[in-house]
Amino acid sequence: MSEVGQIINADNVKLREDGRAVIIIDQSLLPGETKHIELDTLEKMHDAIFHLRVRGAPAIGICAAYCMAVLAAAEVSGGQSGRTLGAVCQASSAMLGAACQEPGGESCVARQGPGEAGSVAGAVGDFAAGASAGDGSNHGLDIGGSGTDGGDEARNPDRKSAVFLEKMERYGEYLKSSRPTAVNLAWAVDRVLAAAQDALQMDCSARSTCIAGGGADVLGGNVAGIDRTAEAHNNNALGGRAVHVPGSDAAYADCVQGVDHGCCTHLAEAIKQEAFEIHREDIEMCRAISEYGLTLVRDGDGILTHCNAGPLATSQYGTALGPILLGKERGMDFKVFADETRPLLQGARLTAYELQKAGVDVTLICDNMASMVMKNGWVQACFVGCDRVAANGDTANKIGTSGVAILAKHYGIPFYVLGPVSTIDLNCTSGEEIPIELRQPQEIKEKFYQTPMALSDVKCYNPAFDVTDHRLITAIVTDKGICRPPFTESLRRAKMME
Ligand code: MRU
Question: What's the CATH code of the domain at 24?
Fold first, then answer.
């Protein structure tokens, strides 16, 4: 296999063959150690995303979808083992609380602009507090245990399906709370949940047609007027808890008994198949983005990139690194400058590693050297990834990205954002509405140093992402094509093709 081939086929995220664990490359150990770890409990899954063992917006989405498949399979065969969700959320709440460093605020998530910090943190905090408060009852759901469906309910397949789906939603909410900025995480969780809802809806339709005398009447208002599929897709959330509760009609009960044996098994299967589909689509999207991106540069160009938007962060070619790797496969040679990307060094640890292994000419620079290499005339284009793109083109990406865009504007260098349409969030009208994750001060003061490099009690501000103003962006390269300003129009059109 070629050098590029080895890098793009790294299997950064996959479902274990028996479907009972997600296997990831632990990116926090790279480049020193390439180690695969298995995620088979909710806690390990949350931890892996929170601690960036799996990272990069698309990879987080794929991982979360597979996590949901594993949790669903566990649920079907007797429930999630380990602590209750309440206990897990309590731990999470404390962990997120420790990360809060915004001066004068308690938020774990900062919105852009003064005075708004905390509103999103409230949502995360509320969930954690609500789920863990007091009796650990998880709002009537025993998420942690098995065999909760007693008596009549256990024999009622629709009730079982409802409980199953509610549990899956709660697991999904918890996974989503691990990292708030990358929209792909919530998007992927909601998508697999919508697939399960669709499967349930098909059940209900099948049953209603087998009820003599017209099932629609028997089912009555329980289903009528609720288009769950549309709701899930349009709102990007499963509102309404629209789960069918059957009538007591004897014919209906007979029909259900025949049809619904193992009802949750096929809901779990729907989740798994949707997770595979998300992964398959991401491979295609990265390839398409790479093709489009390659049209923007010429052989021999210097390209500056920030953070890591390569194979590890996505599937196969990656997004920002995609055109570079695809070009390399076709015999082109770019000179890439990789920002090291303080404080977690994704550029040094991951981008420089991937490109070097792929045989690409890569030069590692500290973040504060970007101006110098641009001034020297060594950079003809900037390629960066994205974690969330607002409807107007404002783009959240790794902290430091907006500084690169400002420099590029100053030096007259085109600045390109590359990402799949799943990263476009039309619900955010501008970057002001994108939640920004705040992380622990230790990442600035201690991590990667042999001894702490700052006083232990010095205040730190550690936002993981910033928002690049759309006016600094030359184009947004998606799998559906290259979006040019005005982005409100071009992004909307790209999104419609999703
Ligand atoms: O905190 P990280 O490492 O998950 O941040 C990743 C980035 O900012 C990437 O540039 C982005 O997710 C795009 S990945 C294709």
Answer: 1.20.120.420
Q: What is the mean pLDDT of the chain?
A: 80
**Residue pair 403/465 in contact by the 8 Å Cβ criterion:** no
Total Cβ atoms within 10 A of residue 458: 10
Write down the pLDDT at residue 203. 74
For 250-273, write each residue's pLDDT tens digit. 333 332 333 333 678 999 999 999
Q: Nearest Cα to 25, choosing from 15, 13, 17, 16?
A: 13
What the block records as the tokens of 259 is 């049809």
Same domain (yes/no): 301, 449: yes
Report which protein residue has its CA nearest ligand 1's atom 10: 385
144 versus 245: which is more confidently predicted? 144
Concerning whether 387 is annotated as a catalytic residue, the answer is yes
User: Does ligand 1 have an atom closer than 6 angstroms to the CB of 402?
Assistant: no
Domain count along the chain: 2
Tell me: do 399 and 311 sit in the same domain: yes
- As a whole-number percent, the residues of the chain with pLDDT over 90 amount to 69
Atom of ligand 1 nearest to the CA of 465: 8
Query: What are the angstrom distances between the C-alpha of 244 and each of 226, 256, 281?
Result: 10, 12, 31
Nearest to 271 by CA among 65, 58, 451: 65
Last residue of a domain, one of 251, 275, 299: 275
Q: Is 232 a residue whose pLDDT tops 60?
A: no
Question: Is the domain of 308 the same as that of 340?
Answer: yes
Our mutation pick for probing the ligand 1 site, out of 386, 399, 422, 476, counting the most ligand atoms within 8 A of Cβ, is 386
Has residue 367 been placed in a domain?
yes
Residue 29 has pLDDT above 90, yes or no: yes
Same-domain status, 347 and 305: yes
* Stronger pLDDT, 128 or 8, i.e. the higher one: 8
Q: Would you say residue 431 has pLDDT above 80?
A: yes
Q: Exposed, middle or buried by CB within 10 Å (0-12, 13-18, 19+), for 47? A: middle
Same domain, 270 and 298: no
| Stretch (H or E) spanning 395 | strand 395-398
CATH number of the domain that residue 457 is part of: 3.40.50.10470
